[in-house]
Design brief:
The longest helix has 38 residues. Helix 1 packs parallel to helix 4, helix 2 runs antiparallel to helix 4 and helix 5 crosses helix 10. The chain is elongated. By secondary structure, the chain is of the alpha+beta class. A 7-stranded mixed beta sheet has the order 1-5-6-10-9-8-7, with helices on both faces. A 3-stranded antiparallel beta sheet has the order 2-4-3. The structure holds phenylalanine.
Length: 340
């Protein structure tokens, strides 16, 4: 009898059900009024007295085993029903949110693509710079007032005083130091200046600066390059004008305005009714800078230019508050989702 009980226990263990019919089969077979457990209980009579107690205990265990299994099967079936109930295959799928490129990335990528079409390659450098790369190599003598033009964030780094770069001209110094002309490169990146945050100024912004060095590079080349850029960026009708300016690292230097694309140069509040908008600084690389970076100014000449990405984005997307670019407000950012 003991072996039979063991065998039944094994069967209960291995049993599996798939639906209510097989569940009922299990119940009837093991626990029904004519089921195997009942039958065994009635055959207990014929067991010798000294074994009765032991057999009774084993039989009780078997009964509990079958009942526990039955409960388990019931739970299994009801949770199966619940999950099939919950899945409605005809329901339309939930739309997943599509990310968007940041407007500044869109503009930066467009600037890179415009210049790469005329042979410029991208170079990048560190945001924490030393005095040499951000100032001295660029012809800013120590204590020169031109250093005040760029409100610098200084940082102590060990013994050395470092600064957050105030422009990506620092990257161009690194390129000049490490390569021989011809050089045709643009350096996009984030720059920092200690300014109070307002709609028109921020303590960090983004630049793309360009550098072209070769034999016989002239101011006319610079002007044509910038005109090409303006037309690619703002449309065929775009015009540029150059106004004399000053930068320590270029001579002569100029500031460049582009005709206002918002009002077709007729005058609006963005261009302050002048028809022109300032977009970049530029000039012929000062011979002192070439010398400091190991390039012979008797052999080579070159030009450089630098523009603010936020400024170009402001004109392209008509976003006038600079703070919007760094606040990560999804309502602002999702307007730049492709196809919206
Ligand atoms: N580095 C200048 C700035 O950040 C821009 C510039 C670059 C001007 C190259 C002239 C030539 O303001």
């Amino acid at each position: 009898m003991k072996e039979y009980i063991d065998e039944l226990a094994g069967q209960i263990e291995a049993y599996s059900i798939t639906n209510t019919a097989t569940l009922e089969e299990f119940r009837i077979h093991f626990l029904g009024s004519k089921g195997v457990v009942k039958e065994l209980f009635s055959s207990l009579k014929s067991v010798p007295n000294e074994e009765k107690k032991e057999m009774g205990r084993l039989l009780n265990d078997l009964k509990i085993k079958a009942e526990t299994k039955l409960e388990l099967f019931k739970e299994q079936l009801s949770s199966q029903e619940k999950t099939t109930e919950r899945i409605d295959l005809s329901r339309p799928a939930e739309e997943s949110a599509i990310g968007a490129h940041h407007p500044l990335s869109l503009v930066r990528n467009e600037i890179i693509s415009i210049f790469s079409r005329i042979g410029y390659v991208v170079s990048e450098g560190p945001e924490i710079e030393d005095d040499w790369h951000n100032f001295s190599a660029l012809n800013f003598p120590p204590e020169h007032p031109a250093r005040d033009m760029q409100d610098t964030f200084f940082i102590e780094k060990g013994e050395k005083e470092m600064a957050l770069r105030t422009h990506t001209s620092s990257v161009q110094v690194r390129v000049m130091e490490n390569s021989t002309p011809p050089i045709r490169t643009i350096s996009p990146g984030r720059v920092y200046r200690n300014e109070a945050i307002s709609a028109r100024a921020h303590c960090f912004f983004h630049q793309v600066e360009g550098l072209y060095i070769d034999k016989n590079v002239s101011f006319a080349d610079l002007k044509q390059t910038l005109l090409y850029f303006a037309k690619e960026m703002f449309g065929e009708k775009a015009q540029i004008r150059l106004r004399p300016s000053y930068f320590p690292f270029t001579e002569p230097s100029a500031e460049v305005d582009v005709s206002c694309s918002i009002c077709n140069a007729e005058g609006c509040n963005v261009c302050k009714y002048s028809g022109w908008l300032e977009i970049l600084g530029c000039g012929m690389v000062d011979p002192n800078v070439l010398k400091a970076c190991g390039i012979d100014p008797e052999v080579y000449t070159g030009f450089a230019f630098g523009m603010g990405v936020e400024r170009i984005a402001q004109l392209k997307f008509k976003v006038s508050d600079l703070r919007l670019y760094s606040e990560n407000d999804v309502r602002f950012l999702k307007q730049f989702t492709p196809g919206v």
